[in-house]
Amino acid sequence: MEYGSGIGVLDKAVQVLRACASAPAALAQLCAETGLPRATTHRLAVGLEFHGLLSRDTSGRWGPGPLLAALAAGAPDPLVAAAAHVLPRLRDITGESVQVYRADGISRVCVAVAEPASGLRDSVPLGALLPMNAGSGAQVLMAWADPSALRAAAAKSSFSEQMLAEVRRRGWAQSVAEREPGVASVSAPVRDAIGVVIAAVSVSGPAERIAQKPGSTWAADLLAASEALTARL
Asked: Where does the record place the HTH iclR-type domain (predicted)?
């Protein structure tokens, strides 16, 4: 473990939790992932299971337990909390509508918004589900999607792998009238603490005001906002 709290047993228990966070794991897998002795790993896993932090399936593999779900349900969303600090400044700099999108299967959901006080704007309601086949936000989420999610979304998308590779290379995406006639947007990835892309932050507005190459207008400010969001996460 790279960092420790100074409480050895707690750090080891967290190692066990992390080892089965993405998929159920047998005892041998937990030992391999954590590097802990078999007896120690088993003792910690059983203790975490007793408290509801882990649970076992019919094959005896450990996975996240019901208490973790209950705790997570009551926790604030760190992405939304970070957006509340960052989006207003991006809106004020650009004078346009700004949003944060998170992937939701083959769609994307708007989890945070900040709108200018007046003027013509591109209003995306909080909680709105938008397709993954159009718009700069969709390009960003697809460019860094895991292969299985990418294949599912690509079936209904016009984005080529060359286009998505270019998004990854330059670090942002732009679109004009892709999602909606007359609307242009620029988006950049938001990363978590270990560098995984978990969302897209976007600036959008009337194409005639943002111009036909919105990236040249707002990419630098957008990248600064994406870095600020990532830093808060």
From this structure: 7-66
The phi and psi torsions of 182 (rounded to 5 degrees) equal 80, 0
What is the CATH classification number for the domain harbouring 23?
Answer: 1.10.10.10
Per-residue pLDDT tens digits for 85-127? 999 999 999 888 999 999 887 788 999 999 987 765 567 888 8
Question: 183 and 205 in contact (C-beta within 8 Å)?
Answer: yes
* Domain range enclosing 146: 78-232
Would you call 106 helix, strand, or coil by DSSP? coil
Phi, psi of 183 (to 5 degrees): -110, 135
Domain termination site, one of 46, 73, 100: 73
pTM, entire model: 0.66
Cα dihedral sign for 69, 131, 138, 101?
Answer: negative
